[in-house]
Structures are given as C-alpha cells and as structure tokens.
C-alpha cells in the first residue's frame, strides 16, 4: 500500500514569505482578512485562541495609554494645585481606568468569535509578520507581487480599535462629570488625550512588531527603573532610613505607585514565561546528507529541511527530477543517535569509502518503520538530533496545541464524494435500531456536553427513561459515563451496554435512577443480565476504597457479575514496547522467539478475543443482555464491545459497517486517541497515557480475518492503513480525545475526515477482499493458543521480505479475477441457453398450432 510517510513530487510554492493560494485559486496573492499563509503556500483560516502572551500584549498597550492619562493628570495637578483637588484628581484617575477597561472589553467582543471575551488570532512567527509590505516578491525580475495583509490578525488592528474605543468612551463619559470637576479640567484632560492617542497609533504602526517581541523586557525594565526614580525622589533631602521609610509609608499615593510598579513587574515576568516560539526548537534548518536510507532504498546526496510540522528530504532522481519525502514529527517515535556510527545499523546497504566517517541518526517511526540520517559533520548531526527530539516532544499529546498539528494545515488534494464527518451520524444509527425495536429514543440531555464530556451530544436511550434519570445516573458514574446502548441483537433483542464504574465508594452509595436505567435495558423475555467487569476482583476492591467500585448485588438483583481481567493501558504499552524490541531484533531465531513470548502480546490478543466470545455467547445463545465496564469505560470496555459486535453483526464485517463501528465505538465513545497514540512501541513514555488499545483491537480483527477469510468484505490493507493513520495522519479523524475536543477546535471545519479519503472508489478498491461471501451467522473463532499468531504483515513488514506473501496474494487475486470472468461467461452462456430454449419453445408451439389448424381444416 502507501508509504508510511507522505511522499510527493516537488511542490510549487508561492514566491515570498506571505503570498499564498486562496479559495482553490491557482494564482498567488495576498490572503483574505483573518487568514495567513502556511508552509504549503495555502491561505489558512486563523483559528487559534488568544494565548496568554497575546492577551498580555494587548493589556500592555492598554496600560501604555493609561500611563499617559495619569501622566497628564499629574501634570494638571502640579499646574493647578489649589483648584485641582485630590478628589478631582482621583475621579479622573478612576475615569481613565474605566475608559480603558471598557475599551478593552469592547475590543475583545468585536473580533471573532464576536460576542465572546476572546479572539481567534493568527500565530505570530517572525518579526517580519508585522511588516509584510517589505517582503513583496518581484516575479521574473519584472512584476512586484503585492502580498501585503494583516498577517498577525487581529493583533495589529485590535490596538487601533482599542484606542478608538477609548477615545470615544472618553468623549462620552468625561463631560458627564462637569458638575463635579470643572469644565476647564475636563477639557484639558481630553485635549491631552487627543494629542497622545494619535502618537500612540503612529508608534504602534511603526514599531508594533518590536513592541510585541520586547514588551515583557520593557515592562520589567520600566517597573524597576520607575520604582528606583520614585524612591530617589522620596529620599531626596532625608538624612536617615527611618525618616525615609516614614515618608514612604505615610503617603497613600506612594503605596499606590509602589503597587502599580509591582503589578507591572509581575505582568512582565508572566509575559516573559509565556512567550512561545517554536522556531527556537530548530537548531539547524537545513542539513546535507551523504545518504538517507529507509527500508526500501538509499537516497544519496539528500538535503534535509527541518520545518515546524515535518522533515522534508529532497533528493535528485536518475531522470534529473527532484523528489521529496515527508516525515511528520507526529509519526516520529524515537530518535537514536549513534555517534560514532556502527556498522550494524547499516543493514545490507552498500557503503562508499567516503561514508566511513559519517554519523548516523536512527529515527524510529510510530508506524514501525526505521529511517537512517547519515550526516558527515558531527556538530550538524548533534543539532539535527536535538532539533528532532525537541520537536517530537513539542508535538506530543499533552504538550502541543492540537491546532498546531498538520491536519489543520493540510490542503485537501482530492474530491470528496462522501463527507466522512456526516457519514455516520447518531440519526443514521438510530434508523437501523428502529428497524429492530421501537423502545428507544434520541436524547439531547448531553447538549453542550453538559453531563459527560467524553460522550457525544446526542445519545440513544430507552424511551421509558427521562432525561432527569440520565443526569442522576451520570453523577453516579465515573466521568459521567452512564450506561449507554451500543448494540441491539436482531434475533434475541438482547443488548450490549457500556459505561464507566459506579462511584459507590467504601460507604456503598446507591443511585436508584442508575438502577432504573440499567434495568430498563433488559428484554421482556429475559429479565436477567450480566455485568462484565474487565478488572480483577482485587482491583475492584482497591478502586472502591478510592471512591469507585462495582455494582452491589443487593441493589442490582437482576444482574449477575463476571470479572474478566484485561490488563490496563500501562501494561499494554509495556507489552507493545517489548514486542517492537523483538521485531527489530535481527539475532538468532531462539532469542527472537523468547523475546516474543516475554512480550505477552499474543496473550493479550487471546484474552481480548476470549472475553468478546463470552459476550457474544451470552447475547446470541443465552439471549441475555450484557453490561460492560472497567474503570473509565474508554479503554478495555470499548475493545470488548467492538469485538463482540464484529462476531455478532455481519454488517460490521463490511467496509462501511467497520468504519461505522470505529466511529461509533471508538471515536464518538471517547477513546482518547491523541493521548493513547502519542507514542508507539519505540519511544519513551512522557505522560504515562500511551497505550496500543486500538492496535490491539485491529490485531484481534486480523485474527478473525485469518480464521474467517471469506466473511469479511475488507482485507488487512484496511487494518494496516487504520493503524498508520491512528498514530500519524494528515486527516483529523484520530487527532482528538473526544467529541468535545473536536467541537472546541472546530475540527470538522478545519480538517478533512479520513473516511472521506477512504470512501473513494480508487481507494476502496485496494481494501476489497476478493473472497468475500456475506456470512449472516455469528462467528465463533478459536481462541486456543496455537490459533493466535503474530500479525507479520504489520509488525514485520519492514524487517522481513514481504514479496513472497505479496506474490501469493497477487496470484490469488489473479485466480479470483479469472474465476469472476469465468462465472460471468457462464452466466452469459446460461442466459443465451435460456433465450434459445425460449425461442425453441415458441417455435415448437407455433408449429404445433399450424398442424392443429391444418387438421381442423
């Protein structure tokens, strides 16, 4: 199938820094307001929320205007000391604060999202972002391409709007206090403001970029400097420290000035710590490589360009054309520098004499591939390795803003036939459910994720249960994950239910609404059910001491409990790491088999399939409903429910049905893909949330595919593609932890669905199983140890020769294709035979009719 990292021909980028393509146009030019050009020369809508640093920048510009107000008010007080009393001065101080505060609030409300105290901003990357007019490129030494627009929208225009609002509010507000403050003082304060506001606007227009990058230092420096001057003025004429402190503390104005200086100092320090610049992570943007290697071949004389999203390896082909290989940081799992280079990492590739002193950086990818960067200069190798390691850490599941990831920058390069974001809605699944039973309804109780952040907004619930019951049940379950229907068996009407553990605690709390909800899902025929807990009984007891637990028998009398221990996510991650260590081990067979056995990965596969078979047997044979949960209900719970549905439901074995299953039981059900897939089997754990749960699900599905080769519409190519996209993708399907996060970052609007790409005829064709024959019966796989085998086409596809298997598969396809042709030809002959028989019958009847007429005559 496709390569693990995006491979593409030379890109035609727009000239200059800020020219880009917009609205699918083929002409380079300035981006629209609210857009900025990305690394692909595409004008991309800015959707980043206002960061603390940007917020503090606007605050700084507001305080700058406020300081000028106070300066001129102080000057007015010194000139008119008798007439301009302290009360009048304080009122003007208060009015200036109120004006700036209202202007600040109105400014935030003015920009998108309109009506909210925040802004959607374009990321500031360079100082030149504030001065794009100086970077308009000249094309072909003739025409100057105009690409001047507000690159850092709306940070520039926001300051102009802020000062405009402040001026208007001042003109409206201050005249109202003429009765308290004399007219001449009001006029003097307004005139002074009308003089310095234009000066501030000019200062911002000319030096806005310099102020943006330096205002934390300016704030800290000015706070310290002004405080020193203030202390000097107080100490002037004082002979000792006691009189100085008495004078300092005896005046309330000194306290106010000192407090303002402290606030300025803190604002500067906070802003300094919040300054984010991803470009400082790139220590060496361009590196020349004597050779770059992957599992397929070597690329001599390559150039590596390190960007914010990916590494681009450019090499010259034999025909003279240039080709690019892209490796995303989200696909990099581990950086392993080997200095000096060791020959065993050279694999079987030939070495040239000039490469004897190169330094190798081994890059392990999450998609299980290995790449080798051979650098000739040690210093360059160190900087490249440090840059890659820093960028991998930055794009980790917890460290990086999700909008920084490549799917938010990916320009769709194909026609969408079916929108994947709307292909598998709750309504479409509910319509299938109504064909089986009319005892269910769609509830909006989770609107705006009010009761559960990891469930979708619309949910299918029993008709007999009110929304108030659902709210009470959500309060009783961990993370608000109350019992929810995920499958209804057509023949028995038994259902599979999933949820999180109940919060009974050591006091054995009770929730009658939760009991009613669970009992409402039992069938009328069999008023009994099973609760399958994917934790060991000892683990449940420990969880109960911490506030969790399991359903008490006395309160859930209609349900029997069964414990099927499936290891938690941290144990699975450790097992997967050991499996990868075994797969890359090129040593003797005995050692490899020992490592494979010690990983316990096949044991996890066996246990998951066994548990799914128990659920399927209970649903189909015993016609009894099953409620499944572990601790949080978004890991092993989803693994069991999805595998059980594959066994029970023939529709889940089709391509569309399998996609719907993943969307419904993994993505919409709240499996935290971004956290779980932040590391594969090579990288070190950074937050302890990594786990190959989805990989285990795909492996179990592959085991079923091997045992029931004709019962699945798809082949293992689909499973391998899903594995790769779960860990690193240019699509937005697997980059969020839940539906709330997808809505928060507007993922549907700003990213492309993987299903939109998969469900195109030319792509679907590669997933089809030529031996597929619909099987409406339940699958009963063998879970014996000898039946569970290693998925070599995934785990070893880069470490052993896959050509023989591909040749056999191609031969299968050829034979199947000929069979289809022969069947078609046989059907055609049958049709012709039927047509001849029909004509013969007609002819016989005609002759018989003629004979009968002759006899009659």
TrEMBL record:
UniProt GO molecular function: protein phosphatase binding
Q: What keywords are annotated for this sequence in UniProt?
A: Coiled coil, Membrane, Transmembrane, Transmembrane helix
UniProt domain Myotubularin phosphatase: residue ranges: 420-795
Q: Which GO terms describe its biological process?
A: negative regulation of autophagy; phosphatidylinositol dephosphorylation; response to unfolded protein
Q: Which domain of life is it from?
A: Eukaryota
Assigned GO CC terms? cytoplasm; membrane
Q: Name one Pfam family in it.
A: JAMP
Query: Is-annotated flag, keyword Transmembrane?
Result: yes
Q: Coiled-coil intervals in this record?
A: 819-846
Q: Which residues cross the membrane?
A: 55-72, 92-111, 151-173, 185-204, 210-234, 255-275
Which family is it part of? Belongs to the protein-tyrosine phosphatase family. Non-receptor class myotubularin subfamily.
Question: Entry's PANTHER family?
Answer: LD06050P, MYOTUBULARIN-RELATED
The name on file for this protein is Myotubularin phosphatase domain-containing protein
Q: Which organism is it from?
A: Adineta steineri
Q: What lineage is this protein's organism placed in? A: Eukaryota, Metazoa, Spiralia, Gnathifera, Rotifera
């Amino acid at each position: 199938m496709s390569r693990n990292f995006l491979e593409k021909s030379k890109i035609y980028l727009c000239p200059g820094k800020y020219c880009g393509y917009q609205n699918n146009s083929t002409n380079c030019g300035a981006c629209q307001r609210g857009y900025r050009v990305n690394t692909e020369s595409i004008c991309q809508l800015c959707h980043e929320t206002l960061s603390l640093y940007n917020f503090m920048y606007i605050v700084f510009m507001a305080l700058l205007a406020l300081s000028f107000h106070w300066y001129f008010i102080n000057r007015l007080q010194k000139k008119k000391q008798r007439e301009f009393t302290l009360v009048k001065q304080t009122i003007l101080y208060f009015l200036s604060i109120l004006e700036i505060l209202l202007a600040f609030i109105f400014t935030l409300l003015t920009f998108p999202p309109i009506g909210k105290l925040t802004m959607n901003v374009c990321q500031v990357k360079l100082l030149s972002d504030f001065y794009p007019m100086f970077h308009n490129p000249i094309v072909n030494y003739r025409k100057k391409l105009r690409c001047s627009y507000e690159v850092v929208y709306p940070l520039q225009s926001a300051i102009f709007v802020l000062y405009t609002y402040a001026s208007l509010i001042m003109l409206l507000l201050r005249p109202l206090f003429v009765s308290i403050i004399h007219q001449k003082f009001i006029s003097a304060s307004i005139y002074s403001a009308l003089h310095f506001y234009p000066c501030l606007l000019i200062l911002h227009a000319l030096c806005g970029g310099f102020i943006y990058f330096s205002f934390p230092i300016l704030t800290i420096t000015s706070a310290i400097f002004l405080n020193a001057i203030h202390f000097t003025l107080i100490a002037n004429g004082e002979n000792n420290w006691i009189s100085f402190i008495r004078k300092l503390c005896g005046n309330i104005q000194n306290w106010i000035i000192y407090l303002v200086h402290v606030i300025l100092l803190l604002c500067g320090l906070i802003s300094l710590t919040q300054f984010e610049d991803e470009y400082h992570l790139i220590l060496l943007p361009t590196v020349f490589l004597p050779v770059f290697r992957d599992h397929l071949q070597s690329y001599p004389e390559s150039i590596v360009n390190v960007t914010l999203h990916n590494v681009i390896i450019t090499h010259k082909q034999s025909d003279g054309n240039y080709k690019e290989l892209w490796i995303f940081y989200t696909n990099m799992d581990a950086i392993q520098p080997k200095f000096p280079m060791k020959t065993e990492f050279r694999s079987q590739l030939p070495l040239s004499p000039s490469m004897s002193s190169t330094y190798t950086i081994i890059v392990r990818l999450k998609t299980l591939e290995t790449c080798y960067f051979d650098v000739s200069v040690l210093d360059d190798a160190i900087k490249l390795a440090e840059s890659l390691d820093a960028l991998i850490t930055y794009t980790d599941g917890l460290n990086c803003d999700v909008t920084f990831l490549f799917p938010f920058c990916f320009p769709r390069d194909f026609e969408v036939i079916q929108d994947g974001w709307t292909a598998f809605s709750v309504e479409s699944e509910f319509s299938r459910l109504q064909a089986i039973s009319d005892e269910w309804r769609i509830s909006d109780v989770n609107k705006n994720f009010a009761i559960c952040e990891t469930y979708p907004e619309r949910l299918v619930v029993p008709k007999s249960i009110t929304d108030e019951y659902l709210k009470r049940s959500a309060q009783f379950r961990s993370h608000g994950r109350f019992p929810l229907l995920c499958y209804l068996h057509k023949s028995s009407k038994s259902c599979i239910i999933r949820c999180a553990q109940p919060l009974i605690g050591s006091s054995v709390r009770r929730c009658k609404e939760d009991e009613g909800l669970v009992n409402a899902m039992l069938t009328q025929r069999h008023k009994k059910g099973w609760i399958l807990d994917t934790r060991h009984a000892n683990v449940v007891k420990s969880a109960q001491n911490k506030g969790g637990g399991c359903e008490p028998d006395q309160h859930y009398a209609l349900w029997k409990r069964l414990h099927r221990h499936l290891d938690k996510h941290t144990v699975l991650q450790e097992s997967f790491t050991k499996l990868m260590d075994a797969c890359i081990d090129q040593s003797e067979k005995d050692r490899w088999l020992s490592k494979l056995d010690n990983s316990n990965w096949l044991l996890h596969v066996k246990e998951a399939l066994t548990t799914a078979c128990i659920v399927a047997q209970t649903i189909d044979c015993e016609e009894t409903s099953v409620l499944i949960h572990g601790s949080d209900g978004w890991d092993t719970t989803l693994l069991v429910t999805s595998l059980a549905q594959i066994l029970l439901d023939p529709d889940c074995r089709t391509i569309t049905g399998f996609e719907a299953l993943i969307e419904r039981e993994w993505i919409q059900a709240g499996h935290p893909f971004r956290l779980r897939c932040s590391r594969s089997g090579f990288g070190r754990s950074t937050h302890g949330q990594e786990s190959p749960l989805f990989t285990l699900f795909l492996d179990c599905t592959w085991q079923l595919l091997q045992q029931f080769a004709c019962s699945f519409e798809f082949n293992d190519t689909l499973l391998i593609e899903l594995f790769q996209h779960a860990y690193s993708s240019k699509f937005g399907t697997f980059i969020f932890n839940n539906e709330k996060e997808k809505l928060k970052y507007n993922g549907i609007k700003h990213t492309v669905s993987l299903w939109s790409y998969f469900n195109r005829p030319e792509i679907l064709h590669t997933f089809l199983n030529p031996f597929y024959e619909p099987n409406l019966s339940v699958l009963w796989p063998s879970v014996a140890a000898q039946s569970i085998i290693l998925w070599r086409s995934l785990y070893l596809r880069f470490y052993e020769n896959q050509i023989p298997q591909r040749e056999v598969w191609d031969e299968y396809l050829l034979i199947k294709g000929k069979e289809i042709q022969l069947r078609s030809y046989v059907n055609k002959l049958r049709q012709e035979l039927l047509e001849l028989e029909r004509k013969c019958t007609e002819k016989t009847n005609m002759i018989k009719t003629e004979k009968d007429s002759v006899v009659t005559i």
